[in-house]
Amino acid sequence: MSAAGGTASRQRLPGGLRAPDARGGPDARRGSDAGRGPDARLGPDVRRGLAARLGRGARRAAGATLVLALAGCGSFWPWSGPQKPPMPPPPEVSAPVPARAAWTTRVGPAGVGFAPVVVGDSVFVASSDGRVARLEAATGRTQWQVDLGRKLTGGVGSDGDRVIVASRDGSLTALDGNGRQVWSVPLGAEAVTVPSVGLGLVMVRTSDNRISAFESDSGKRRWTFQRQMPPLVLRQTGAIAIAPGTAFAGLPGGRIVALGLQNGAVRWEASVSQPRGATEIERIADVVGSPLVSGREVCAASYQGRVACFEAASGRQLWSRDVSSSTGLDVDARLVSIVDDRDQVHAFSRSGASVWRQDKLSRREVSAPLSLGPVLVVGDAKGLVYLVSRDDGAIAGRFPTDGTAIASAPVAAGRMAIVQTTGGTIAAVELQ
After folding, report:
1. Which of 381, 411, 299, 422 is CA-nearest to residue 60?
2. Structural contact between residues 281 and 54, judged by C-beta atoms closer than 8 angstroms
3. How far apart are CA 256 and CA 273, in angstroms?
4. Is residue 384 within 8 Å of 398, Cβ to Cβ?
5. Which of 68, 183, 279, 429 is the most buried (most CB within 10 A)?
6. How far is CA 200 from the centre of its chain?
7. How far apart are the first and last CA of the chain?
8. What are phi and psi of 68, to 5 degrees?
9. Alpha-carbon distance 236 to 356, whole Å?
């Protein structure tokens, strides 16, 4: 099988890990066990070793998906790894800031990586069972909801005029601002990023490590960029950052690439981190979450690697720090914030100096952060939303949702942070 476009069998693995077929088609999934004999299974010692090497950051429910793309590889058999230690109790609020639970509503179950998108005074959300909705940001009131009748792979992308979702059958579907379907196109493989929408384009990366750009009005494919797939990658649902003239995409193997919007030409490519280690598991160093553009800089984080910032125009690295993340980062005018794979929240200055570190959320499977006014906002695997002081990292607030995991990083709507849970709740916390 080819590393980029061939197939491998797919089974559900512990902690959200799976070994999918590169095409992601339903026939391939149904037939993944066909013709497999006992010799194809990994022995118990190998399974335990792999589980241990993956570490908690990759096994966590809010973490990534393991994609097998190794030529001539055998099938992974589900293993039983070491049991996770019990989750510690949530930390107490030590430096409260004025805030309130503003509203909640329900849409439908969501997988890891599903997150709302805020455009103006509207919030667009999608559920894994195929529902897409537009909410009023101030109140959470549903303005419209449609059921596409097919499973979705990630959250919604929107610029307000087009609402874009990717489905498990390998298609990309566009709705208008009123929820009417405008177009649908085949991707040729399953999407592994949330659709990015902006400047007249829709962009998505698929499981064959191909980035495609489509015209948002018509669905016409404008260009395609592709790199060879490494043997093993962490599959997680970040997004491609679209900026004037350039798109910035994180890639497997710790790379970040800047592509011209007009034709997909490479403007520069740089390394966030270098794969290290003796095994393919140890060498996973993929960029996680979404690259973030702030001013003249673009920053990105990688698993088993680093957080780094680059000149957006040239790709020259400005600074980097050895911090492994399985979720991603946020950037504001003063700080680069990131949650590491031990669930510690770090804040770095825009020049890369360490400002503070908060370790009281360790082992709570914390989302990527959102910078909002005086706080960072994160969610955990029990549906708790935390406010963390941007000044010193103190816990400044804690709000419950429905008890299920926060599916992705919170998003901002004015002074509100909006989260989506895997159980189907959309909740807003508002700073006073």
Report:
1. 381
2. yes
3. 10
4. yes
5. 429
6. 23
7. 56
8. -95, 120
9. 27
The candidate with the shortest Cα–Cα distance to 182, out of 214, 216, 206, is 216
- Residue 345 identity (one-letter amino acid): V
CA distance 170 to 20: 13
Report the pLDDT averaged over residues 238-245.
Answer: 94
Per the listing, tokens 């290290």 go with 276
3-state SS of 295-364 is CCEEEEEECCCCEEEEECCCCCEEEEECCCCCCEEEECCCEEEEECCCCCEEEEECCCCEEEEECCCCCC
- Between CA 85 and CA 32 the distance in angstroms is 32
Burial 338-376 (b: 16+ CB within 10 A, else e): bbbbbbbbbbbebeeeebbebebbebbbbbbbbbbbebb
> Residue 201, class by beta-carbon neighbours within 10 Å (0-12 exposed, 13-18 middle, 19+ buried)?
buried
User: If 0-12 CB within 10 Å is exposed, 13-18 middle and 19+ buried, where does residue 37 land?
Assistant: exposed
| Sheet containing 375-379: order of strands | 370-372, 375-379, 385-389, 395-399
Q: Which residues contact 35 (CB under 8 A, 6 or more apart)?
A: none
* Structural contact between residues 269 and 255, judged by C-beta atoms closer than 8 angstroms: yes
pLDDT at 32 over 70: no
- Measured at the CA of 59, the angle between CA 54 and CA 63, to 5 degrees, comes to 115
Give the C-alpha distances (Å, rounded to integers) separating 404 from 82, 380, 421.
23, 9, 6
Q: Under a CB-based contact definition with an 8 Å cutoff, are residues 386 and 361 in contact?
A: yes
The answer to whether the beta carbons of residues 196 and 242 sit under 8 Å apart is yes
The per-residue pLDDT for range 155-176, each reduced to its tens digit, is: 999 999 999 999 999 999 999 9
Tens digit of each residue's pLDDT (9 = 90 or more) over 63-121: 344 444 433 332 222 333 456 678 999 999 999 999 999 999 999 999 888 999 999 99
Q: What percent of the chain has pLDDT over 90?
A: 72
Three-state secondary structure string covering 190-246: CECCECEEECCEEEEEECCCEEEEEECCCCCEEEEEECCCCCEEEECCCECEEECCE
- The answer to whether the beta carbons of residues 77 and 9 sit under 8 Å apart is no
Give the DSSP H/E element, type plus range, for residue 45: helix 44-59
Mean residue pLDDT of the chain comes to 84
pLDDT attached to residue 236:
66
